[in-house]
Write a structure and sequence with these properties.
The protein contains seven helices and 14 strands. The protein is α/β, with parallel strands linked by helices. The strands form three sheets. The chain has a six-stranded mixed sheet, with helices on one face. Strand 7, helix 3 and strand 8 (130-132) form a beta-alpha-beta unit. It is globular, with a radius of gyration of 18 Å.
Length: 293
């Protein structure tokens, strides 16, 4: 069922593109107050050197401070496999609550086993301040926001509707990009199709904001479209039955390499953006499971 959406509420959305991972993070400002949310932040990593930095997050922090905003929420649309979350780093400086879909517990269980995490790694989602169920609402200043469960890319994927804007994570790409892969552990192409239909049941004028864009066919990077544009032009959806989409998505996924940062990203993001705990000498390490993913 399509949730009640007030298209007259138009939050101010500022996108921050990270060229290293083709990720777009967002600052979403309530039009009636100084309250804001940050969606899908990025922590920088030089994986070859094992070096963490925060240039991208610092740019977002500077924006929030320069505009006198109050950070209420740090939203993760899902456990990303291609970039590391900077949510705890930003939270330490600006406050706010970190939220993700409740099925994070399924992701934690799956990857806790893959990375051979011990019993000290909690698989109950307690690393986050709020676990969202399908249809849950929460306040961002004067806006009532809605969390929609949209699995398929991962079991914990959520689309967050804030006024006339919806942040779809990896459920959809721009119309000429189609959709995201569904072959990670816990992914399901049929579920992804159903989730896309759920997003496309929102009003046609709803603004959609992508988590990634790769500039297909050499075009400039873009990250905003509408439900109506996706319904009319998405190359993986228009004219496709569920069975045809599943066949297309499965065949395409079989040709894709693993994301370059999947190993560090999953270990960090399943912890809410925190690094693995330090050993007795105070050093932190990331594991590489051999033939594990």
């Amino acid at each position: 069922m399509t949730p009640a959406i007030d298209l007259t509420v138009k939050p101010e959305v500022t996108g921050f593109f990270d060229p290293a991972t083709n990720t777009i993070s967002y600052v979403v400002k309530d039009p009636a107050s100084t309250a804001c949310a940050i969606v899908d932040s990025v922590m920088d990593i030089d994986y070859a050197a094992g070096r963490i930095t925060y240039t991208h997050a610092d740019e977002i922090i500077a924006h929030v401070r320069a505009h006198g905003l109050r950070l209420d929420w740090l939203i993760e649309t899902h456990v990303h496999a291609d970039h590391l979350s900077a949510a705890p780093y930003i939270q330490r400086q600006l406050g706010g609550k970190i939220g993700i879909g409740r099925n994070i517990t399924m992701v934690q269980d799956t990857f806790g086993k893959i990375f051979n995490e011990g019993t000290e790694f909690q698989r109950d989602g307690s690393q986050f301040d709020r676990l969202f169920d399908d249809g849950d609402t929460y306040q961002l200043g004067g806006m009532t926001c809605i969390a929609l469960h949209t699995p398929g890319h991962t079991p914990a994927c959520m689309t967050h509707v804030m006024g006339d804007a919806a942040f779809v994570g990896d459920t959809l790409f721009m119309p000429d990009g189609g959709s995201a892969r569904a072959d990670f552990p816990g992914g399901d192409a049929g579920q992804l199709y159903d989730s896309i239909q759920k997003v496309l049941s929102l009003p046609d004028a709803t603004r959609l904001f992508m988590c990634h864009d790769y500039g297909p066919n050499g075009r400039d990077i873009r990250w905003e479209t509408t439900v109506g544009e996706e319904k009319a032009h998405n190359i993986h959806i228009v004219g496709k039955s569920r069975e045809e989409f599943v066949a297309l998505r499965t065949a395409r996924d079989a040709t894709l390499a693993m994301p370059k940062l999947i190993i560090p990203s999953l270990q960090v993001n399943m912890r809410g953006g925190d690094l693995p705990p330090a050993d007795e000498s105070g050093k932190r390490f990331l594991k590489v499971p051999i033939n594990g993913i």
